[in-house]
């Protein structure tokens, strides 16, 4: 019963403040905007008790502990697609950086993990380059780490 009294008080105060604001608004171009804002304010005042009631109704509903198997398959498929997209993006970036340095990049491996929240963490990038064109892999590794911001290991196919 106190909830109904509180709601009625809120509606009355909202209507009173809306009437006062409407009398202060000048006629003309601002009048339509002011009416819109005041109407939205009144609607919010009418709906506000529902925002308190919805969580209470929700608590009464039985929630499933285990997700539906179809949802699990869909989630795993989406996770794999995210991983593949991230992997392909990194591989493309490594190839373009190597090409910009004039290096023939033969293979790129991306080591990554996905945690239970679906966050992808990239652990390491391993790059295999054609060894005849590069005198030192350490410089290439440092340049790629600077560009990618990820631990990068560069090895030559002649090693």
Quick summary:
The chain is α+β, with helices and mostly antiparallel strands.
Give the distance, in angstroms, between the N- and C-terminal Cα atoms: 82 Å
How many structural domains are formed by the residues? 2
Rounded to an integer in angstroms, the radius of gyration calculated over CA atoms is 31 Å
Q: Main sheet, how many strands, which sense, barrel?
A: 3 strands, mixed
Oligomer: single chain
Q: What percent of residues are in strands?
A: 15-25%
Strand arrangement within the widest β-sheet reads: 1-2-3
Which regions contain 5 or more consecutive residues with pLDDT less than 50?
A: none
Count every beta strand, where a strand is a DSSP E run of 2 or more residues.
Answer: 3
> Could you spell the SSE succession in H and E letters?
HHHEEHE
CATH class of the largest domain: Alpha Beta
Corresponding CATH architecture of the largest domain: 2-Layer Sandwich
Helix content class: 55-70%
CATH topology of the largest domain: GMP Synthetase, Chain A, domain 3
Task: Round the mean pLDDT to the nearest integer and report it.
Answer: 78
Overall spatial form: elongated
Question: What does this molecule look like?
Answer:
The protein has 159 residues and is an alpha+beta fold. It folds into two domains: 2-60, no CATH class; 73-156, GMP Synthetase, Chain A, domain 3. The protein is built from four helices and three strands, in the order αααββαβ. A hairpin with a 5-residue loop joins strand 1 and strand 2 (120-129). Helix 1 packs antiparallel against helix 2 (29-60). The longest helix is centred in the N-terminal third of the chain and has 32 residues, at 29-60. The model has no long low-confidence stretch (mean pLDDT 78).
């Amino acid at each position: 019963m106190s909830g109904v009294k509180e709601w009625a008080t809120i509606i009355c105060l909202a209507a009173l403040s809306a009437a006062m604001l409407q009398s202060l608004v000048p006629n003309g171009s601002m009048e339509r905007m002011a009416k819109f804002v005041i109407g939205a304010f009144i609607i919010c005042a009418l709906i506000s008790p529902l925002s308190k009631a919805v969580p209470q109704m929700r608590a009464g509903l039985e929630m499933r502990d285990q997700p539906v198997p179809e949802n699990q398959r869909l989630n795993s498929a989406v996770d794999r697609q995210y991983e593949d997209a991230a992997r392909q993006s990194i591989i493309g970036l490594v190839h373009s950086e190597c090409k910009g340095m004039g290096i023939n990049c033969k293979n790129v491996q991306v080591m990554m993990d996905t945690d239970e929240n679906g966050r992808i963490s990239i652990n390491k990038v391993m790059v295999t380059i054609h060894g005849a064109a590069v005198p030192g892999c350490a410089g290439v590794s440092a340049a790629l780490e600077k560009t990618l911001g990820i631990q990068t290991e560069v090895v030559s196919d002649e090693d």
